[in-house]
Amino acid sequence: MKPENRIVRHSLHQSLVAPLREMIMQGELRPGEKVPEEQLCERFGVSRTPIREALKVLAAEGALEILPHRGAIVARITEEQIAELFPIMASLERLAGALACRRADEADVARIKGLHEQMMACYRAEDERGYLRFNRLIHETFFDIAGNATLATLYQQILTRINACRFVVRKKPEHWRTAVAEHEEMVRLLEARDADALAALLERHVTGTTVGIARDFVAGTTIGSDAPTEPRAAAVA
């Protein structure tokens, strides 16, 4: 890796936590992979000590596992964690959707619609990285519009642990079609300010579609990136 984004040496390891977390969230560091400490040192222009301290923080969050004599690996999610974490995520999304509907002004609705249009453009162009980015931004924007900082913090904590199953793995065609249709409906319900229906849809989106994707991921049947297996055939009209 080429040196980039060199970190100012004030609370150095804390300054490294956010970019390292983002690498996990974006799928640049994937579940089960060993964290390449030497490459990260070169990328951020730091020694191994602050890198390792930052990795310890991420391990405490559940995003990494630190193994004796092997270093850090990106955590894999298990069936037990799916059963534990996804109902929490579903409840957070439900509340965020209800609050967002009640608080959203026309500019907020336009922001969600714009992100959705960009996500669909990436989907049709088979731009996997772009699709992932806008998909995640849509969900984060619901929390932003909801205007509850504690709710948003809890969401980010859970998301760090389950992101690989949500925004990084390849969907089965039926999951993909359902996910796209549900996103279309989210936009419609927000525009209609139907708080109860949007809240219920966001909860169902997590407990149904997303849990199905996560279980496939754990079973090893669809490991890959969160993009359509056959994107053009699966695109909605």
Automatic annotation (TrEMBL):
PANTHER family: TRANSCRIPTIONAL REGULATOR, GNTR FAMILY, TRANSCRIPTIONAL REGULATORY PROTEIN
Transmembrane segments: none
Protein name in the entry: GntR family transcriptional regulator
Keyword Transcription regulation: yes
HTH gntR-type domain residues: 10-77
Keywords: DNA-binding, Transcription, Transcription regulation
Lineage: Bacteria, Pseudomonadati, Pseudomonadota, Alphaproteobacteria, Hyphomicrobiales
Keyword NADP belongs to the record: no
Matches recorded under InterPro entries: GntR_C, TF_FadR/GntR_C, Tscrpt_reg_HTH_GntR, WH-like_DNA-bd_sf, WH_DNA-bd_sf
Superkingdom of the source species: Bacteria
Classification via CDD domains: WHTH_GntR
Gene Ontology MF annotations: DNA binding; DNA-binding transcription factor activity
